[in-house]
Structure prediction request, 315 residues.
Amino acid sequence: MKTSAISVTIPSTISDVERDTGLAKETLRVWERRYDFPRPERDTFGERVYPSEQVIKLRLIKRLIDQGYRPGKVIGYSADELQALAQKSGASQREQAAPDPELQAYIDLCKSHQMEAFRRKLTQAMLVMGLKNFVTKLVAPLATLVGEAWACGQFAVFEEHLFAESVQIVLRSAVFSVPQVNHSSAAPRPRVLLTTLPQERHGLGLLMAEAMFAAEGAQCIPLGVQTPLPDIVEGARALQADIVALSFSATMNPRHVSDSLRELHARLPEQAEIWAGGNNFALRKRPPSHVTVCELEEICAAVTAWRQRQRQALS
Prediction:
């Protein structure tokens, strides 16, 4: 299948590309010298700007690097060749699973911009499935499919934003509707502060985690996205958070993730635990020992284990 590149008239700055792809500015400059790609243009001030087709190719290269490919092996490929390789690798990792027709129906609604119908379908599914299954069995797989389509240039940026905002509207309503249960000392209710670091602007993963925490009876304290680290520490202290939950997408620089988690651990109160989730490489390769790394479906068991530790501490 050919790459359907979306025509974008405004080129991206190097900072835009770093945030968009997760490739550091230094890496982009090194590749420019070593591999003659990317080939940025210059704006009226002489600063690097990157056409949309180069940004799409960089997304694909980053995706393949995360799957274990070396930059020098793939950087010379065309966008179509990169997409074919990424799809082949992704299909292999998914054991050649065919796309779920039900998931494809949601994707088709997004691509045709029928967002009211999309939200109605999501709401109906949530009422039938229950909040936990809705998050883990529908929203998370959908987000993965949309992310892959966006990386390949098959979803425009505005379409990815439409998808994310529509899902967030449904999830926020569902979280707000979760009944508040008074937990006894035998089943304490953790206070969970949820946010992302300043370099992480994606908030859908964070909201999915909040839904799982809320369904498990936790007291959720969402700060939104892109909170400076000192403010996370101040908020955790003032609000007496038991858990600071952070979300990291693949676009964030893994080195920044590891360094920030280390600094956050050193500055948080001793009783505050750090839980992290997302598909960032730093969490998959060698997660820090002081951080609890959770997939969405593991949050419920992790909260149960937290409650057990609290009961043991009180006994």
Observations:
- The radius of gyration is 21 Å.
- The chain has three domains: 12-93, 101-177, 191-314.
